[in-house]
Write a structure and sequence with these properties.
21% strand, 3 domains, two-stranded antiparallel ribbon, alpha/beta, 10 strands
């Protein structure tokens, strides 16, 4: 029981450190390489876990040689010059992605997303939460029961190692306890689109990768089932897998409408807007082939995409080669559209504000 409380207190300390340095954690590219199935390893400085350190008892001195009460330990002489800088204690801790998303939501003051569509059903399921002394035999916790019986027999002196027979008594038996939890079953799909033309270099793709990671984390915290689709484009668009999405680079021009058209086809053919919560995110440096193509993009948004999606997020990343004009086109032609949200990311530090901009509306 005491260890459980200490562990819980330690987890609270870790959460506090992450909250304090959240803006820094949002920009750490190395975290993406530590991502597991549902957890991520985070290096947290300034804390350490207490632990025993065992020696080999080969050194002389008090406790292992000729010593007297009151003798000093050591002769006060160290090896080498003493340092003047305080040491850094860095501990890698495993944090669940849901837990990390909760911290993100709390710190950015993000409201919970309100799903739409007919599949917004809620199911009930039993979740095992603890141990109790009574219950049906089908829920008996065998390992805990066995340990209690073994401990009792050893303490009473009846345990025979040569004939290790364990006999359960009523007081030994413990059972799993449960509670009924309500779980949302809303389905959601995220369609990521990115300009991979020559003006989008590795620095821009790194910004996109970080932003997409945190978008993914927050949406998965709000939905039971998530699908992700990835579209890349220059003057033509194509669907790719996740790894190709973040690595592909082309040398051609840019026609943004090609990506919007493919997203529309995906929605029409696969994701009924009445049944799915649909999120579109487009990443670009704002360069487009022509004004006429930008106008066509606005028409597709108005007529086909925006009426069918929860949110269309446009993230414009800074590039020395792009014009950066497309975000202005959206502001001029589609002002005050509730589910169209834009953000600018010039450096990694802007990701914090960009995530908050996208999800502050709770869509």
């Amino acid at each position: 029981m005491r260890i459980g409380k200490d562990h819980q207190r330690f987890r609270q300390i870790v959460k506090g450190k992450i909250r304090k340095d959240l803006r820094k954690f949002l920009t750490q590219s190395e975290l993406l390489g530590r991502e597991g199935k549902r957890t991520i390893s985070i290096p947290v400085s300034g804390i350490d876990t207490p632990r025993f350190r065992y020696g080999d008892n080969s050194d002389g001195g008090v406790g292992s040689g000729d010593g007297k009460p009151g003798d000093t330990v050591g002769d006060g002489e160290g090896i080498g010059a003493g340092g003047t800088q305080e040491g850094r204690h860095i501990l890698e801790v495993e944090v669940g992605l849901d837990e990390l998303a909760d911290i993100l939501g709390e710190e950015l003051q993000l409201p919970r997303i309100k799903p739409r569509g007919r599949k917004n059903i809620t199911s009930e399921r039993d979740r095992y939460t603890g141990i109790r002394q009574t219950g049906p035999e089908s829920l008996r916790h065998f390992k805990r029961t066995f340990r209690k019986a073994l401990r009792r027999q050893i303490m009473s002196g009846v345990y025979d190692p040569t004939n290790p027979r364990i006999i359960f008594e009523r007081a030994d038996k413990v059972y799993r306890s449960w509670k009924t939890v309500r779980s949302p079953q809303s389905n959601a799909v995220i369609i990521y689109m990115m300009d991979v033309s020559g003006s989008m270099g590795s620095e821009q793709k790194e910004l996109v990768r970080l932003e997409a990671f945190w978008i993914d984390a927050w949406l998965r915290r709000n939905y039971q089932g998530i699908e992700s689709r990835y579209i890349v484009h220059d003057v033509r668009a194509g669907e790719v897998d996740r790894e190709t999405f973040f690595r592909l680079r082309e040398d051609g021009g840019t026609r943004i409408s090609s990506a919007f058209r493919m997203a529309r086809e995906l929605i029409d053919n696969t994701y009924d807007a009445n049944e799915w919560n649909i999120y579109l995110f487009h990443f670009s440096d704002g360069d487009n082939s022509s004004e006429s193509d930008s106008r066509e993009c606005c028409n597709m948004l108005t007529e086909n995409l925006l009426p069918n999606v929860n949110l269309f997020g446009y993230c414009q990343v800074a590039s020395a080669y792009g014009s950066g004009n497309f975000i202005n086109v959206l502001h001029e032609n589609l002002p005050d559209v509730e589910n169209l949200i834009t953000s600018r990311v010039n450096t990694k530090d802007d990701i914090y504000d960009s995530i908050k901009t996208f999800f502050s509306s709770g869509q």
